[in-house]
Design goal:
It holds the Pfam family Y_phosphatase. By secondary structure, the protein is an alpha/beta fold. It is built from ten helices and eight strands.
């Protein structure tokens, strides 16, 4: 509503005390006042048998929020994977953010998916980088064995910025059990070296695709696995944007600062730049105006001709988001 518009407009203004925008000051306090997990709180990740499972030794999960692996086997045969549960607005532990699998942790990755009844994988990288530590954990066609699992790639769809693959996951330790249906969404519109994706619209489209699959599979409550190179930079932004848009949809109000802070307490590297924090607000603005029933532009859609809608609506949106560029 108009009060939200006012709130976000205020953030673009310069704070006379600091000579920076209020948004920049808000981000700075987010960095300063978010308590990071201590080494002791992350002790399991530093155990000798687990240490080599971390791509980056400083990006590790707190013991209290890490998903436990239950299926036997895998590298070093421990219950550890570098992953952490995050809450959405609606559900506790709605996301499991994790690093993209190392060559030694592919089986652990599938154990994570199987043990936590995951039906949705969101892959926030395009595999175009020169990094050879990242393993392709699925078969491009037919079936591939990842002891004790078989993964069957049954379908693939290519959309403009998202590759969608459908897998059947068989557990050989439970021969009589029904194979699990798992769908992977690979987002291709975000290069590894950029802090933010090139398009807010594409980002919201990805969230819509994932939501509709979850509704279709009747698994709104199962965790979504979201992964990227460090399990934070790209994955965390996806979870943050999902959560603040969900809060706006449900409550018609949202506290971006505290939603992000809640996630950073478990994974401090999430939303770790001003660009990413600004992106959260910019996407929220688009979501309010373009996607929500009763949003500024959806209201205008009901009352005016479509050509007028885009002339008027995009002008106000453009003028607002240009303010945001300088925050």
């Amino acid at each position: 509503g108009s009060d939200l518009k006012e709130k976000y407009h205020t953030l673009t203004m310069r704070n006379p005390k600091t000579k920076h925008s209020f948004l920049r000051d808000q981000f700075k306090s987010l960095q300063l006042f978010t308590r990071k997990p201590t080494k002791k709180q992350c002790s399991v990740s530093h155990l000798p048998m687990n240490y080599s499972k971390n791509r980056f030794p400083d990006v590790v999960p707190p013991n209290d929020y890490r998903p436990i692996l239950k299926t036997p086997g895998g590298f070093e045969r421990t219950d550890y994977i570098n992953a952490v549960f995050l809450d959405s607005h609606e559900l506790n532990s709605h996301f499991i953010v994790t690093q993209s699998p190392l060559h030694t942790t592919v089986i652990d990755f599938w154990k994570l998916v199987y043990d936590h009844k995951v039906q949705t994988i969101v892959m926030m990288e395009d595999f175009q980088s020169e990094d050879d530590t990242t393993a392709e954990y699925w078969p491009e066609d037919k079936i591939k064995k990842f002891e004790p699992f078989f993964v069957d790639n049954t379908n693939i769809w290519q959309q403009e910025n998202v590759t969608i693959r459908h897998f059947k996951l068989h557990n050989m330790l439970r021969v009589k059990s029904t194979p699990r249906e798992v769908r992977q969404f690979q987002f291709n519109a975000w290069s590894e070296n950029d802090f933010v994706p090139k398009s807010k619209t594409m980002f919201l489209d990805l969230i819509d695709l994932v939501r509709s699959w979850q509704r279709q599979s009747n698994e709104n409550t199962a965790p979504i696995v979201v992964h990227c190179k460090d399990g934070a930079t790209h994955s965390g932004l996806f979870c943050a944007v999902w959560t603040i848009c969900e809060a706006m949809q449900m409550d018609h109000d949202v506290d971006v600062y505290h939603n992000v802070k809640h996630m950073k307490k478990r994974r401090p590297q999430i939303v770790d730049t001003l660009d990413q924090y600004r992106f959260c607000y910019k996407v929220l603005w688009d979501y309010m105006n373009l996607r929500m029933p009763g949003g500024t532009l959806t209201n205008m859609m009901n009352h005016t001709k479509q050509d007028r809608l885009y002339n008027v609506g995009s002008l106000s949106l453009a003028s607002y988001t240009s303010h945001l560029e300088y925050m």
